[in-house]
Every structure is written in structure tokens, then in C-alpha cells.
Amino acid sequence: MAKFLVQKSGPLEGDVTISGSKNAVLPIMAAALLTEDKCVINDAPALRDVDVMCRLLESLGASVNKNLECNTVEIEACGELTWEAPFDLVKMMRASILVLGALIVRTGRATIPLPGGCAIGKRPVELHLKGLKALGVRIDEDQLARGIVDASADKLEGSIIYLDFPSVGATEVIMMTAAMAEGTTAIENAAQEPEIVDLANFLNKMGARIKGAGTDTIKIDGVDSMKGVSHHVIPDRIEAGTFMVAAAITKGSILIRNVVPDHLKAVIAKLRECGVVIQMTDEGVLVRGDVNEMISTDIKTLPYPGFPTDMQSPFMSLLTVAKGPSVVIETVFENRFMHVGEFNRMGANIKTDGNCAIIPGDKELQGAQVVATDLRAGAAVVLAGLVAEGTTEISQIYHIDRGYENFVEKLRTLGANIMRVDEL
Ligand code: UD1
In the chain, where does the domain assigned CATH 3.65.10.10 lie? Predict the structure, then answer.
């Protein structure tokens, strides 16, 4: 199994270009199933999750031509598709559920085995199914009890759907299905993440009639057909936020290119509270951790536009070394403090109580053997390793490969002392 070895590094300096968004490209790839025409997706990051989605679409009958060196994926779902998603692919990636809506539209049916709970929480899909049922989809309850979503529909009809929680995945699946249902659908308490807006823009280019994406109410007038289009995926705001923290924690100065600052308002506000100087320039966002001493701040994760749960663990790495205590409250996932144990191996002395973590701060971290317990937690321990004395050895880095394109290379270009080793 490959590992990362991270040594204490000086201030990270230079510039970094952010890749296309993982969480935007995955639903967009699934939405390409809605047409028999070819869709060309540009700025697709070369990531394990993108690779899994390519294989999943192929297994369903689409022809997929990926050139991830050029960050392009072409998808052509002409002819008959199969409605059965294979478990060996689905179990590799929770986001496989995103094909649910488009498959029902194309084949009238979709069977997708649900992988069990993952490290950060249960991640159920009852909101996806509630929305689909409102559109006229039947769900086989016996199969569901066995962990298989078996959905079928003869006809899809628009409806008003209130989501009890603004689930990103549920909003995306319902949007794709309603785009080709008869009549009008309203999704209330919809997720407002930038990735939802990118998906709506992609669908609208294909011929859909979606309004209000990016607000809490999305209105969709169903259409009969969709056409193939070419699309550029938005930059990855979580990758950008991670490099912002890298500048802050190492007291460095990084120019972040290909970033939409509006997508990172909460993260930028919190970094400024810590003493980070952030300037918008014509070339990108300049993040300077070398001006002020880093001080503590409190964080509460929320659906967008609140502080993103995916930035919680990377940000916590900064709070472990900042001056003064901080409180972090996680409200989106019920079990997203796996990284706390890893930080504590490095001397952070964090205490948790339910969804609340208390970080004493002011710590000089020590290198240790730690585990990337999930994707973002993996990035978080890399950041901590950059300022820890000695060597930090990080295992289970396949999690990091799921979501950060060329992470080691980008960090090394900025002066980080990190390398990937393949263990025998
Ligand atoms: C997406 C992102 C993930 C991010 C998350 C929250 C992708 C591929 N992944 O995941 O990186 O951390 O949004 O911003 O875009 N929930 C229910 N019932 C449901 C659906 C969700 O209770 O039917 C709960 C989940 O258990 C979780 C919360 O809602 O606690 C957020 O989940 P959701 O917004 O659906 O996240 P994902 O779409 O899985």
C-alpha cells in the first residue's frame, strides 16, 4: 500500500492552479446519460472517483472516451442502456447513486445496490427516494430492506418536493429526473451548493428548463428531449480551500489560480478571522499566512453558503497550531471527527463531545504514523505534517487520490517536503 512521507517544511510559496471540481463533474457525467448525443466534459480532474464514474457509465452501456491528461471526458449514451449498476463499482463510490435519476428517465428502471455506511456517517438516500416517488417512481420496499434501490416508472410527472434537509445528492438526482418529467417540479429547501448550479447550467445547455438553482427553491419545467453539449466544469472550491489553509499553516504565501472566491466566502471569512491576509488579484487569490500570527476561531459546518463540512478537517489542522482555543461544531455529518484521533497522535490534544470538538491550540505538532481516515481527513493530516517536527507517515492515501488531482506534485512545487512511497 502506498504512503505519504511528509517532513516539516518551510513556508509554502508560489502559485497553484486549482483543478475542476470533483463534486461538480460526477453529477454532470451522470446527467450525460439523459441524451443519446455525445457530451464533452472539459476540466474533468484526473481522480479515482472520476475513473470509477467512467467505468460505471460504461457498465451501463454508454461509450466513454476519457483523456484525463487533457482533462476531457466524452460520453455518448446512444442505444440501449442496462438499468443494473454493478455492486463492485458502486461499493467504491457513494456518488454512484447519482446515476439513479438519469437511468430511470432512459430505461424506466434502475437497480443500484447501496454500499454500507462509510466512515463519515450513514449517508442514507431516503430524500432521493422521497423526491423520486413524488415524480411517480415506484420503489421496491422489499429490495430496499435488502439494501438495493430498485426503482421503476412508466411515466414521470412533475410535483412539489420539500427536502427535510438540503441534501446535495438528492437535489441533483431529483433535478435530473424532473428535467424530463411531464409538467413542472419545484424542489423546496433545495441544496444551494455551486455544484448544483453547475449541474443546472449543464442541463439547461442540454435543453432543460431549470430556474432558481443556487437558491432554496428550484423550478423545473420538464422537456421531451435533451441534446449533447460541451461544458467546462467549475473549479474545485474544496481543493482551493485546502491550499489556502496550506499557506496559512506554513506561514507562506500562495497565489491560487482558477478559483471562484464567491464559492469560498465562509472559508475566506474564517481564515481572515485567524489573521490570514487574502487579496483578490487579476490572476487569482493571494493567500498570505506570513503577515500576522495565526489566532484561533470557532467553526460550525452548515449547508452552503455556510462553512463547508468538507473543509472542516483541513481547517482544524490550522486551529491545532493557532494561538488560543477553538470550538468546531459539525452539523452536516454525524461522524466526521475521525481525523481528531490522528491529530492527537501528533500532539494536538483535541477533545470531542458528540458533534463538538474543542481544540486547545498553541501546539507544536510532532510527526507520527497516521491514517487518512477519509478523503478530506487525509488532506488535513498532510497539512498538519507540513508543520510537525520530524516525519509524518500517512497510510490509506487512496482516499486522498479520490479527490485531489496531483496533490503531491502541486505541494512539492510550492516547496513542501512530501513524497509518495510504495510499500512492498
Ligand atoms: C455531497 C458531496 C460531499 C459533501 C456533502 C455535503 C458529492 C459527490 N459529495 O455528498 O463531498 O461532504 O455533499 O456537502 O457531491 N442525508 C439524509 N438523507 C438523505 C440524503 C442525505 O439524511 O437522503 C444526510 C446525510 O446523511 C448527511 C447530510 O444529509 O448527513 C448531507 O448529505 P448530502 O448533502 O446528501 O451529501 P452527499 O450528496 O452525499
Answer: 3-18+235-421, 22-232
